[in-house]
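[09:14] KT: can someone run the structure on this one? pasting the chain below
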Amino acid sequence: MSTEVSRITRSTAQLCEILDFAKERKIKLVIGACIVDCTSDLDPMTEGMLKMMGVFAELERNMIAQRVKSGMANAKAKGKRIGRPPLTPETVPNIFYRYYPRFKAGEITMTELAKLCEVTRSMAYRYLDTVEGRDSKLSSTLEAEQITKDPDEHIINGGYDEHGKDYYS
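[09:31] RB: done, structure tokens below
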């Protein structure tokens, strides 16, 4: 049961799979005011109209996606920041600072800290990185680069052979 075809699926290929599934299982589809009876052979006109409705639903979805991308590109070109605002020590909630000393002293775990602050563990880690002056994304990227560039590690995937010589030179 659905109010319209675009609520069931956003792609024509997936709509065809749903219709085939309904035909195999011999079930009725209720789409808005239209009841599609798949218990017997489906009327070609009904099937064609459903597929056309699916084409237009997919077209609408693609047009929306294109407008969103265009709007984001336009905003970015005007110097607007896209995405989540940056996290700074000033924007970390006060409740985190209330329980942070207990966490640092080892009295509570990260899971308990997150529960006390009513945030997810990943958000608590983001707060922790911010408060302690680390950028979690930046530090993990730098660590990964350091690992792959360190010839003493002899990492084949990093571009070095078993003797530390550059694979690509």
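[09:33] KT: thanks! The CA atoms of residues 100 and 168 lie 47 Å apart.
[09:34] RB: yep, looked fine to me
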